[in-house]
Amino acid sequence: QVQLVESGGGLVQAGGSLRLSCAASGRTFSSNVMAWFRQAPGKEREFVAVINWNGGVTNYADSVKGRFTVSRDNAKNEMYLQMNSLKPEDTAVYYCAARPLGRTTIETSTTQYHYWGQGTQVTVSS
Fold it and tell me: In 17-54, which positions are buried (b, 16+ CB within 10 angstroms) versus exposed (e)?
């Protein structure tokens, strides 16, 4: 069982930066594939970034490549999303998610993730 809590969201001007954190509880965190998703008003939840259990493999949505960086610190049970060069279209609620234990492939579909946080709002003003 994994419980997830996001933090770090807020209001930022276009071109600015934010760092999101996802704190996990549960002894299996270090073995779980973790990901960030986001959902803008009126839109479906979409994939942003994913990281494997030891941080050695990552993948990003095309819309954030080169601007966002996902990382994790298993000793602290935390995952991060560094967001640079933010754009108004990045405005959304950002969610962290974890795959079930034993599912080791990195996936981009929401259906592959069993555990979800409550989300944190990111608003980018133009």
Answer: ebebbbbbeeeebebbbbbbbbeeeeeebebbbbbbbe
